[in-house]
Design a protein that fits this description.
- The protein is α/β, with parallel strands linked by helices.
- It is built from 16 helices and 20 strands.
- The chain has helices at about 20-35, 45-60, 60-75, 75-100, 135-150, 165-175, 190-195, 210-220, 245-260, 275-290, 310-325, 360-365, 380-390, 405-410, 445-450, 470, and strands at about 1-5, 10-15, 105-110, 115-120, 125-130, 150-155, 180-185, 205-210, 225-230, 235-240, 270-275, 330, 350-355, 370-375, 390-395, 395-400, 415-420, 435, 440, 455-460.
- The longest helix has 26 residues, at about 75-100.
- The protein binds nicotinamide-adenine-dinucleotide (NAD).
- The site of nicotinamide-adenine-dinucleotide has 29 residues, from helix 7 and helix 8.
Length: about 475
Amino acid sequence: MKVINPSSGEIIREFSLQTIEEIKAVITQARQAFDQGPWPRLSLAERKQFILKIGQGILDKAAELAEIETLNTGKPIKETTFMDIPSAAKAFEFMANNFEKYLEKETLDIEGQAQGRLVREPLGVAVLIIPWNYPLLIACWKLASALAAGNTVILKPSSLTPLSALELSKIIKAAGLPEGAVNLVFSSGDVFGKAVCQDSRIDLISFTGSNEVGRQILECSSQSVKKLIMELGGKSASIIFKDADLDTAVNSALTSIFLNQGQMCTAMSRILVQDSIYDRFTKEFVSKAQRIKLGPGLDFETQMGPLVSDGQRQKVIVAVEKAKSEGAKLLCGGKIPDNSQLKRGFFFEPTVLAQVTPQMSIFREEAFGPIAVLSKFSTPEEAIALANDSDFGLAASIWTKDQDLARSTAAKINAGTVWINTYGMFYNQLPFGGFKQSGFGKELGKEGFLEYTRLKNIITDQSAEGKPLVNFWYGF
Ligand code: NAD
């Protein structure tokens, strides 16, 4: 496996990929560590200390991690320094300080002297499959919950972006976690999927990635009936009403589609603008999109880096060409930049397409690149219908000064996260996850944590009489 710097096209590192036999040995190790090892048997207070140490370990190496993540993904160093790495550390700190209360046992008096006790247990061996767009952050979201719950873990980064996971595994080792609690695998997706999906020694697969691969995992896991968490794609809509603050709406729309080169599951890849402000909005939006500074990820002045790979760039080029052929109007971008200093990296210009209708592929399919799609609406009902006209249901954002309009619109949006007059903030307290084909299960918050546990109910009845199935059924 060759790891490439997308800003320059150069090979930064080579790895050998693990074979199916090697992955099976890792599964054995994780299983033994769960069945016999100390990790699930530690007291909650001990587990908390380990989880805090991982978070602190990330903070101690923050600058180095930011550089590695940028080198490997191409995303601007400003993003990794101020968002990805601190948020990754925070995920551990937050979970360490909250999981004990999420695990509190509940006792229910049922009837007579019967009592039920609800107990949360770890699931067992949890497989965590990570995409390339937020390699460290998504790994940390999943790891913090899976470990706090007491599972042992097999972590599988994307073959395109394994470097930050490698550093994270060193931090975890330095934190002193017991052998086998966290196991890192470098392998191709196909080989890994074959090894884990059908293996009944694995209790959970938590997958974040594309719908195509998500479907393969669903099918392949059906024989072994394991728990799945699916965090899949999106085609989210930003709804901009006529009374919105225009400057803020334009700026947020830019961030929501060009941050991380548009390679975000929650990218607002459909921007719906009310007709009376559509022309003004479009003019401002295009003028600012053209001023975004492209450059290598490691340059602090860079506002937009390269796409993660040449393959990803090809997909984006195909999506733009198809949109044009279906009648969308290209307002800017749509090509590889002419700048000779960028020619070896996988750069693509911020692209704006207008006059896009719901019948066009670019309105319906996730492009996962810097392609903004503008459409017009006249009434709130039309905006809601357009936003919901999608197979996906991951997120939406609403821009208006009218709080009643904002709330009534949010109530009718078919998506797991709705931002009102804001965009893109994820909070450790708030569960995140999509509806419809954006998947199922949550990450973050109490609900995200509980996904990594199983619920047992233990029933005790101290009464001598009054247990119909015990005392009277056969009449003996
Ligand atoms: P991908 O599906 O190609 O790969 C994701 C991971 O799955 C990688 O680690 C890959 O190696 C692995 N994989 C590939 N084939 C596999 C198989 N057969 N069995 C098991 N694992 C396999 O996705 P990607 O291109 O890395 O990421 C982009 C996608 O991720 C987009 O669709 C995006 O919307 C989605 N995403 C979703 C969220 C969310 O929270 N909903 C967050 C980030 C990204």
